[in-house]
Design brief:
Blueprint lengths: L3 H4 L2 E4 L15 H6 L1 H7 L3 E4 L3 E2 L11 E5 L6 H13 L3 E6 L9 H8 L11 E2 L19 E4 L4 E4 L14 H15 L5 E4 L20 H11 L7 E5 L5 H8 L8 E3 L22 H13 L9 E2 L9 H4 L7 H13 L4 E5 L20 H12 L4 H11 L36 H6 L4 H14 L1 H5 L1 E4 L7 E8 L2 E8 L6 E2 L7 E5 L11 E2 L5 E5 L1
Parallel strand pairs: 1-2, 1-13, 2-5, 5-9, 9-10, 10-11, 12-13
Antiparallel strand pairs: 3-4, 6-8, 7-8, 14-15, 15-16, 16-20, 17-19, 18-20
Helix pairs in contact: 11-15, 12-13
Bound molecules: alpha-D-glucopyranose (GLC) and calcium ion (CA).
Amino acid sequence: MAQWWQKAVIYQIYPKSFQDSNGDGIGDIPGIISRLDYLAGLGIDAIWLSPVYQSPGVDNGYDIADYEAIDPQYGTMADMDELIMQARKRGIRIIMDLVVNHTSDQHEWFKQARSSRDNPYRDYYVWRDGRDGNPPNDMQSTFSGSAWTYDKASGQYYLHLFAAQQPDLNWENPELRQAVYKMMNFWIAKGIGGFRMDVIDLIGKIPDAQIRENGPHLHDYLKEMRAATIGDQDLMTVGETWGATPAIAQQYSDPARHELSMVFQFEAMQLDQQAGKEKWDLMPLDHATLKAVLVKWQTELDYTAGWNSQFWNNHDLPRIVSRWGDDGQYRVKSAQMFAILLHLLRGTPYIYQGEEIGMTNHHVKSIDEVSDIESRNMYRERLAAGYSESAILHSINVKGRDNARTPMQWTDTRNAGFSTGQPWLAVNPNYKQINVTNTLREADSVYRTYRQLIKLRHEEPIITSGSFTNITNVPRTVMAYYRQANQQRWLVVANMTAETPTIDLPDTAKQLVIGNEPDSDLNLQKRVLRPYEAFVVEV
Ligand code: GLC
Ligand code: CA
C-alpha cells in the first residue's frame, strides 16, 4: 500500500513572496490562509512552508533566532495555528521547514555560546582556535569566503557553512540533539504533516577533516531523531540532500531503516554548470545528459524500499521555463511539457509557487535590484577577483535565487495583487499577462495541466507504483518511457526543445491520458513531434 506522501503532490510556499495581507509589502500567514481555497482548487495535498520562524532575515528566514516563535512580519502563533487548522479542513497538510544545520547568530543558544568559553551552550556550536592568525582550515562558505569567523571576545573561530550570521550547530553534542528533538515535538503536537529538512546532509560534518556532506554519523543522528520525534506517526519527512547518490538515497529513505520518507536531490539541477565549478559558471544543458540523470534516478533507486522527490523549481533555483524551456513563444507549451515529463516519473512531485502558472525569471540591470545574500556576496567576491560586472550580472540573471522569489502573480492589477504596499522585491513586469486570474480564464493553460496531473495522480495508482522503463530509440532531445502496473501500460513522450524530431515506436495508442496538444495525433509510427509537445497515452 502506498503511503499518503507517495500519492501526494506538494506545493512549496515562500511566505515572503506569496500573499501580503496588511500592505507592508511582505507576504504573511494570513495572506496564505486567504489563498488556501486557490490551493485546494489546484488539488494539492500538502504545503511545504519555507521558514516563518523568528529570524533577523539575513537569509530570508533560513537563519532562525527562535524555533518556537513566529516572526512578527509573518504574523503570530495564533495565525500559524489557524493556518494548520484551515489547511487541514481542506485536506492539506503543513510541512514545516526544519533548519537545524545552523541557527541565526541571534539565537539565544549562540548568544550564550559566544558569551564565554565555559558557557554550557558553547559546545552547541563549532569553535576552533586559529592557525597563526588564520582560520583553522580552508573550508569555504556556500555564500562566499571562509567558513570560519573570528569571535574577538572569546578568541576563537566559529564555523558557518553559510553566512557568518548562520553559525553551524554541533551535532556531536547530545544535549543539542535533544534540544532539537524537543522543538520538533513542539511542532508535531500542533498537528503538522511533517518536516522538510534543510541541508540535512551537512549535520554530520567533521570540520577538522573538512568533511561537509555525508559525515560518518549522519544516519545515526537521523535514526535517533526519528525515534525521539516522529516514531511511527504518519508524518512525512523530506531531506534536502545535495550530496546524495541513489545508494545514499536508499539509506535515507528505506522504511526499514527508520530515517526519512524521501530525499530531495539535485543531480539534474546541476547539469548546466561547469564540472567542479560553481553554480555561476554556466554551461549549456545537454538534453541527453538530463535524460540520463533522470533515468538513473528512476532505475538505480529501488522505489519499493526508498523514495525520491521530483521537482524543477524551488526558492533556490531559477524558473524552469526560463532555464530549460522557452519563456517567450513557447512559454505555455514548454511549461506544460516539463510538468508532464516530471509528474509521470516515480517519486513525489513538488510544485513551487508560481510554477503552476508558468512564472518566469526576472532580469535585473544592477546589483541594487538584488536582495539575495548569495548573489550579493558572489557579486562582491567576483568583482574583487576581476570578473566583469556584466558577466556577474549575467550569471545572476540566469541562476540567481531572486528569480524564484519575485512576488506571486495573482492579478493584472497593481503589484499583481500581491500587496497594496511596496513589495519587498520587485514584481516581474510580465504580471499583466502572466497571473492567476488570467490563467483561470484560459481554456489551455499551464495551470490546467498541473491540476489535471494532480487529479490523475490521485486516481491512477500506476503513476505512484507502476514500474519505469526508459525508451532508448528516440531522438536525443526527446525523453520517452513506459509506466506499467498489472495489465496497464502507459507511454510518456516529451519533446524537450522547439525542434520537431520524429519518433517511431512500435506501440498502438489506445487513448490519450494527458497532453499539451489538444488535437494530438495518436499515431506513434514516424510521428513528427511539435515544439515542446508532451503526451501520455495508454498503449
Ligand atoms: C538550503 C535552503 C537555502 C538556504 C540554505 C541555508 O539550501 O534551501 O535557501 O539558504 O539551505 O539554510
Ligand atoms: Ca504583510
